[in-house]
Amino acid sequence: MPRSTRTYPLLVIVALLALVAFSACVGGASPPPRPPADAPTSQVVIEVPATPQPASGLAYELSAGADQPPAAERNPLATGEPLSEADAQRILNRLPPLAEEAGDVLDFRFPAQSLPAPRPGVVVKEPFPAPVTVETPVVEAGPLEVVRYAPEGEVPLAANLSVTFNQPMVALTGLADLSKLPVPVTLSPQPAGQWRWVGTKTLVFEPQGETGSMAAGRFPMATTYTVEIPAGTTSATGGKLAEAVTFSFTTPPPQVQTAWPQEGPTQRDPLIFVAFDQRISPEAVLETIKATTGNTVFPLRLATEDEISADETVSQSAKRSL
How far is CA 181 from the centre of its chain? Predict the structure, then answer.
């Protein structure tokens, strides 16, 4: 496409030869005379094409497009037919015979002894499964004895009662069958609970807890318990107990933890509050309490719920002791 061209006037001054008169005057040379205004000029104006300058920004040219050249044609593949066996043999017959050389035929080299396949780990040379050896249990003969029992004496807490013999007392069987067998131990008094065998030689009594569970049970407090294993008790192997075995244990009685009022002046008809370290029967404890001054004994009774609620001190103490 055509490109625009700008022209700039260029003034070219052509110096013309002027006649300069030299005078040999003493005052020196005089300046050349100026031509008149209407005299012919000695300047010529010539138009010269401008030098192309690089365009600023993006410059591009547009021209007519041409189609892609057509794909070159591939030479056709040569077609042929396989040689017959006879023709192939005639060609092979032209070759010189193959000379046999030493070392062309070798026997297969077998190792003297094949190596065993690698195996990880360590080989344990023991039969599997291992032979089972059953040892005949030693049956203790002789008289039956009680080797240990617990608890005994004064104890702070009794979770259960256990008696152990030196000989098996029952056969190995299920718990349901063992529960039907007679118990060779007498406990007095016997609280709610159950007897059970631990193995064949130990008998345990577990008292029932407040929630009905045997695991959280314990013997009631403030009680003396007597345990007796009568003479003539027979073991599963025929041993007999020669003499009766008797022992006892006692759980601690209730102890007073707090009481009110104690010191200082108070009203003449106060509520008396006493807290113990274990559960008690209020009616039974009331019979053991006396309020006296000199020879005078004051009658006592249990306070009602309304009287307890009306007294702030006793009410708060009762709630803390529950």
Answer: 49
Alpha-carbon gap, residue 183 to 161, rounded angstroms:
13
Beta strands in 210-310 (DSSP E): 224-229, 245-250, 256-260, 273-276, 291-293, 296-298
| DSSP-assigned beta bridge partners for residue 193 | 207
pLDDT per residue over 35-76, tens digit each?
555 555 545 555 555 556 655 677 777 777 777 778 888 888
Cα separation values, 138 from 145, 148, 150, 166, 169, Å: 17, 21, 27, 12, 15
Residue type, 286: L
C-beta separation of 152 from 251 below 8 A: no
Peptide bond into 111 cis (omega under 30): no
Paired tokens of 66: 């041409």
Do residues 185 and 191 make contact, with C-beta atoms less than 8 angstroms apart? no
Q: Percent of the chain at pLDDT above 70?
A: 80
SS3 at position 291: strand
CATH fold for the domain made of 146-250? Immunoglobulin-like (2.60.40)
Pair type for strands 245-250 and 273-276:
unpaired
- Three-state SS for 20-57 is CCCCCCCCCCCCCCCCCCCCCCCCEEEEEECCCCCCCC
Q: Where are the domains of the chain?
A: 146-250, 256-320
How far apart CA 261 and CA 267 sit, in angstroms, is: 10
From CA 234, how far away is CA 167, in angstroms rounded?
A: 10
CB 13 within 8 A of CB 43: yes
Give the closest residue to 46 by CA, choosing from 4, 8, 5, 6. Answer: 8
